[in-house]
Amino acid sequence: SSRVVEIQSQMSERAVELLGLPDDRPCLLLDVGCGSGLSGDYISDAGHYWIGMDISPAMLDVAVEREVEGDLLLADVGHGIPFRPGMFDGCISISAVQWLCNADKKSHSPPKRLYRFFSTLYTALARGSRAVLQLYPENSEQLELITAQAMRAGFTGGMVVDYPNSAKAKKFFLCLFVGTSGTLPKGLGTECAAGEEVHQAKFTNERTRFRNIKGKSVKKSRDWILEKKERRRRQGKEVRADTKYTGRKRRPRF
């Protein structure tokens, strides 16, 4: 119905706004759970390019009939994001990610599927970019499960809640940063009557020593190496223990 289309395009607009894309150049975005391509239309209108993934052949058929601008891929994001590293300048998802919390098959483990999705998404996104995932959580446990797997995969950021005091207009956007800790954007309508803000959950990480101007640790510095190792540990990979020699330059040998 036209009302659904209207809400969908409002949420797409808000998601793209939360990505904070540069004005001066077109970007390539990933649309997770793109459906019939309504959010893609908004991305195209904004002058950007997109690739959409969806699990439903019927929805993608509609997108093809509508002659959307983006490229389409039939896939289950619970199996991971099959693109090369750093390919996308951002990712949006409208009303899709909560489906990963359901175990549709006996073999499905929601935490594993969420982690697979987030860890491969993290890799497919360019450093310094964002993913903004609008979702309809069933309860706070779902929100915590989704957020925890995103953080485990290396993202920083957290939940931006628009209109938290309205039953109808309340919207959840998981706003995730890749490789740099940005400031979490403010939710719309978060000013209370008295003008005080509603405090939202923020997720910070304590790796803030010796940042250079851009907010990242200097590449190949000891801190940069320790951060990288810490991130790989969080991802459950085997990493050598840190010692006083970690990140030391070797003498040139001839």
From TrEMBL:
Domain (18S rRNA (guanine(1575)-N(7))-methyltransferase Bud23 C-terminal) ranges: 176-251
Instruction: Report if keyword S-adenosyl-L-methionine is assigned.
Output: yes
Gene3D superfamilies the UniProt entry points to: Vaccinia Virus protein VP39
**Compositional bias ranges of the Basic and acidic residues kind:** 236-245
The record's note on quaternary structure and interaction partners says:
Heterodimer with TRMT112; this heterodimerization is necessary for the metabolic stability and activity of the catalytic subunit BUD23. Interacts with GRIP1.
Give this protein's Gene Ontology molecular function annotations. Answer: rRNA (guanine) methyltransferase activity
Major location, coarse class? cytoplasm
Q: Do you know which InterPro entries this protein is assigned to?
A: Bud23-like, Bud23_C, Methyltransf_11, SAM-dependent_MTases_sf
Q: Which reaction does it catalyse?
A: a guanosine in 18S rRNA + S-adenosyl-L-methionine = an N(7)-methylguanosine in 18S rRNA + S-adenosyl-L-homocysteine
What GO cellular component is one of the record's annotations? cytoplasm
Family listed: Belongs to the class I-like SAM-binding methyltransferase superfamily. BUD23/WBSCR22 family.
Instruction: Enumerate the UniProt keywords alphabetically.
Output: Cytoplasm, Methyltransferase, Nucleus, S-adenosyl-L-methionine, Transferase
* Species, as recorded: Trogon melanurus (Black-tailed trogon)
Biological process annotations from GO: rRNA (guanine-N7)-methylation
Q: Where is the Methyltransferase type domain?
A: 30-106
Any idea what this protein is called? 18S rRNA (guanine-N(7))-methyltransferase
The record, for Pfam families, names:
Methyltransf_11 (PF08241), WBS_methylT (PF12589)
Q: Which domain of life is it from?
A: Eukaryota
Q: Where is this region: Disordered?
A: 229-254
Q: Provide the protein's localization.
A: Cytoplasm; Nucleus
The function of this protein is: S-adenosyl-L-methionine-dependent methyltransferase that specifically methylates the N(7) position of a guanine in 18S rRNA. Requires the methyltransferase adapter protein TRM112 for full rRNA methyltransferase activity. Involved in the pre-rRNA processing steps leading to small-subunit rRNA production independently of its RNA-modifying catalytic activity. Important for biogenesis end export of the 40S ribosomal subunit independent on its methyltransferase activity. Locus-specific steroid receptor coactivator.
